[in-house]
Write a structure and sequence with these properties.
The protein has strands at 2-10, 25-29, 44-48, 55-59, 71-74, 80-84, 89-91, 113-115, 121-123, 132-136, 143-149, 160-169, 175-188, 196-198, 205-211, 214-221, 224-232, 242-246, 252-261, 264-274, 281-290, 292-294, 301-303, 311-314, 320-324, 328-333, 344-348, 353-354, 359-360, 363-368, 374-378, 382-388, 400-411, 441-449, 456-460. The protein is mostly beta strands. The strands form eleven sheets. A four-stranded antiparallel sheet has the order 10-11-12-13, with no helix packed on it. Strands 14-15-16-17 form a four-stranded antiparallel sheet, with no helix packed on it. It is globular, with a radius of gyration of 21 Å.
Length: 464
């Protein structure tokens, strides 16, 4: 048994202790509409990272379903500001924002709307990962830019659209949506992967989108979102969902998707360096990973990935990269010339199941938490999440713990989509011209083994 203690020191300006908390509350919610025998499994499972370890609780006042699309933004105090399933956006009072009851309407909208046991008809969220994201608008008070993909791309045919809307706080102190449905790009080959990294100036943001063998790289600054340039790639990006991430240092970018050709499936793992000043990918490479292995229970060869469960995340120190399919978790060393040469299997499904429906507790999507651990959703509906406890450690010492987090409710397998936070400007760089200063916050946890009190693990959570 280990006891976790979190200690924070502000090296300058204590107010920083109460900033950079946009990702401190996670929501997992899925309403079992068809089976009234499981009413006690309904409600929202909350992971609250305002405490370390996070508090896990049930909130019945939250009623917005999140099938896969999941984006939550907290205020400077780490309290819910707004959250969305890609079809509706709710506020801290758990009601739709003004003009936010319906966003991203499309030709297949009705496929994701259902009647609940209580007779309500409501959107239950799109089945896509990272298809919506947002940031506080640079140099604007109480304005947030939301970017999202047209869900018609979920048909896996044709191209996807990138759209935007603006959330403002009106004179009545209510959140309101304006300029909804503005088309930014109609020619995207890949949907999902909406994640942003801060510019080296500490104010603006970068967003990368893809079409075939090139990127659309956008700069978000006080003037709005603008196409900065297109970058040619030495490979082709396939139409698929999946996860995309920048590392915590903002120096690397990775994307992990799945595709099928006839009866053969592959996972496409893209890895690249990233320049926060220019927005350029540095030496991007694509790796193709077959997605079949023997089922650990039946011994039958199966496909291990779908468009929904291919998880990806960087370790906090950026030296390791993790991906997973339904049955295994892999680790790679990012400094290697060829990532595949360092591939290690660090986690495996051990035959665990989820209550109350006895489904397999397989691996899904990944998200690094504010506590420095990596959380892995179940690939399907479940009452558990998995966790990588020491993701900076090499090999099996990273400790992939299956069913590590017991949720109070039965939830769809999902994790929230967050940007790369707590970066600030690159001090002394050519872009460091805005007078924005980094005021470092020293933050760490330590875990003391209660059976061996001299055995202590330290985790560095410092930023700036």
């Amino acid at each position: 048994m280990r006891i976790i203690i979190c200690i924070i020191f502000a090296l300058s300006f204590p107010i920083l202790l109460f900033s950079q908390k946009e990702d401190h509350i996670w929501i997992n919610y899925w309403e079992n509409r068809d089976n009234p025998n499981y009413l006690d499994t309904w409600g929202a499972s909350i992971l609250n990272f305002n405490t370390i370890p996070p508090t896990i609780e049930n909130r019945y006042e939250i009623t917005l379903d999140m099938d896969k699309t999941n984006h939550i933004v907290c205020d400077e105090n780490g309290e819910i500001l707004y959250y969305t399933n890609g079809m509706s956006i709710h506020d801290w009072m758990h009601q739709p924002l003004i003009n936010g009851d319906t966003i991203n309407f499309s030709g297949i909208w009705d496929n994701f709307v259902a009647e609940t046991y209580f007779g309500e008809v409501k959107p239950h969220g799109f089945l896509t990962n990272q298809s919506i994201g947002s940031i506080a608008f640079p140099n604007q008070e109480s304005e947030w830019l939301v970017l999202y993909h047209n869900i018609d791309g979920a048909n896996f045919t044709g191209l996807s659209e990138l759209k935007s809307l603006l959330i403002i706080k009106n004179s009545d102190d209510q959140l309101e949506i304006v300029n909804k449905g503005v088309i930014i790009n109609e020619n995207l080959q890949k949907y999902g992967g909406i994640t942003m990294c801060q510019h080296a100036n500490g104010r603006d943001w970068w967003l990368i989108q893809f079409e075939d063998d090139k990127t659309f790289t956008y700069l978000i600054d006080p003037s709005g979102i603008n196409l900065a340039f297109q970058q040619a790639l030495p490979f082709t990006v396939r139409l698929s969902n999946g996860q995309a991430k920048f590392n915590q240092q903002g120096s690397a970018f990775a994307s992990y998707t799945w595709r099928r050709t006839n009866l053969t499936g592959f996972s496409d793992l893209m890895y690249s360096g990233f320049d926060r000043e220019t927005g350029m990918l540095i030496d991007p490479k694509m790796y193709y990973i077959p997605d079949s292995l023997l089922d650990v229970v039946s011994g039958i060869e199966i496909h291990t990935n779908t468009h929904l469960n291919n998880g990806l995340e960087f370790s906090p120190n950026g030296e390791l990269l993790y991906i997973c399919n339904s049955y295994e978790v892999y680790q790679f060393e990012t400094a290697a010339e060829n990532l595949l040469d360092t591939k290690k299997t660090v986690g495996e499904w051990q035959g665990e199941y989820c209550d109350p429906f006895d489904w397999r507790a397989l691996y899904g999507t990944m998200q690094r938490g504010p506590d420095g651990k990596i959380y892995i959703s179940s690939a399907n509906q479940c009452t558990f999440m998995h966790r990588i406890n020491y993701p900076d450690k090499l090999g099996i010492d990273c400790d992939v713990e299956n069913r590590a987090v017991a949720l109070p409710n039965f939830c769809m397998g999902t994790v929230p989509n967050h940007n790369t936070l707590r970066l600030g400007p690159i001090d002394g760089s050519p872009s460091d011209t805005l007078g924005i200063d980094n005021h470092p916050v020293a933050k760490f946890t330590y875990e003391q083994d209660s059976m061996d009190y001299v055995s202590i693990d330290f985790v560095d959570l410092s930023y700036y």
